[in-house]
Amino acid sequence: MSWAIYTLYLFMAASLYRLVRGPTVYDRLLAFNLVSAQLILLMCFHAIRHDRSYYLDVAMIYTLLSFAETIAFVRFYRPNPRRESA
Amino acid sequence: MSTLLIAIGLVIIGFGVLGTIILPDIFLRLHASTKCGVTGTVTILLGLIFQSGSVAMAFRLLLIIVFVFWVGPLIPHILGVAYLKDQDAPKEEP
Known about the structure:
The structure holds two protein chains of two kinds.
Chain A: H1 2-21, H2 25-50, H3 54-76, H4 81-85
Helix pairs in contact in A: 1-2, 2-3
Chain B: H1 2-22, H2 26-51, H3 55-71, H4 74-85
Helix pairs in contact in B: 1-2, 2-3
């Protein structure tokens, strides 16, 4: 089971390439979502491995919080509608 | 069974990460990341259900699967619509 955890760490490091290099902010948000999905998987792996059930609660909340965070960033970077009408 | 599901999910996630790195356009990247990310995550979580010792952990893993299926396809939709409406974003030439 530890091989799966190390492979997931490798994939997270590979996904950080797009997070660093992405031409637009949307590429970075996309890479952030990929990394957060793999982070949820890592929490579940460690919960099963060490038999701690509260890691799964943390993973559950983190799933919804990363979704809310993406929506907040997209609304923050949205172009100003008043500038278009003026 | 559990090891097989985890290995299949890792292969799917690996293809998603590869597509996210090497594809030239943002829409292709959204396609690769979403499809492979959600499917691989759910496959690995299904494999972990077989290894969980108690009913409570299995139920929580099932709830995480429901959440991932719920918010997973919504995020690239929001990102794609925001990219299309953003006039200032640089449009890449493939």
